[in-house]
Give the backbone structure.
Amino acid sequence: MEVYLDHAATTPLLPEVVETIYDAMRNINGNPSSTHKLGRIAKTKIEQARKSVASQLVASAGEIFFTSCATEANNMVLTRCIKDLGVQRIISSPIEHHCILHTLERVETEHNTKVDLLDVNPKGAINLEQLEELLAASEEKTLVCLMHVNNELGNVLDLEKVGNICQSHNALFHTDAAQSMGKYAFDLSQNLIHFLTASGHKFHAPKGIGFLYMNANTILKPMLTGGAQERNVRSGTENLHGIIGLHKAFDLAYAEVEERNRKLAELKSNMKNQLQTLIPGVLFNGTIEQQSSHILSVSFPPSPKNEMLDFLLDMENIMVSGGSACSSGSVKASHVLEAIGCDADYKTIRFSFSHINTPEEIDFTCNSLAKIFAKA
Ligand code: PLP
């Protein structure tokens, strides 16, 4: 048996998505900027995708811009906010994705932008009282940048709460929704979120396609200049087949969202229950009561097997994210595990699920882990 439990890293294309893209590759090949018939057909496909995404997010089509990935969209928000909206300070957290954290390092040194990282507790919960205090303490134009679902812990941020805090202090709010898109309902018409980014390959669309939502009142200038595609926000010939694939995957995700979430919750609680019984002392990371059902971060108690655990699982054909060996001198602990003060003697593995996983795969994984640790 081969078990893929690394869906927070990327997801495989669903057969329906493959079929849709394959069909488009054979039949739809115009340049969307061309004014002739083939160009117009291609353009229509893109606009249909944009409308579908917008309507599900309760946004307007003019607020959705396709990008190559969430990394690009996050870079654009953080760098252009400073130039276009006069942002002087960015408040974020130490458990954001590297495409946020490394860009923050850059804007701090290159643009002299003030960056404040909020405290997180040992469960990875972000200190929102500190956010309020920081916002109240300064009149500087501020962007708050906090991810919706944390990619290592699965913690879910209360977007409405943070959006309201930002609104009451006149701050802009950006959320990286790469891990939550397709799994959560959004209502961007409330105008609490100014920027939101997403990535197709996290919800069974192809790699290399994502999108950026920008509130109509805070449209940024382009990071890439050129042929003025995407209403001059993102130049470069559109990834037509990627957008068509994203459209299909997005529609499927929301048509099936409840059913998928129900399956994910079952898979996760099944795995938790089995691990608790089979491996004494196992710990689960994150704010357990506010977690996405597709991520389970597990810390295994000290064992001679820990150093080799990623490899041993790989040998069993079980694919997970090793995260880090906190204790190992050679493997650097993940910045997220470091931020929550993960016990250095434990080994943390991130298991991440899709609705296409089965209970049998969970049983196989738990039994393999039990065997691995039994031999210690
Ligand atoms: N943000 C989060 C929370 C992610 O998990 C990822 C991917 O792992 C990214 C951003 C980057 O996404 P992309 O691969 O589309 O650049």
Remarks:
- Confidence is low (pLDDT under 50) at residues 324-330.
- DSSP finds twelve helices and 13 strands in the chain.
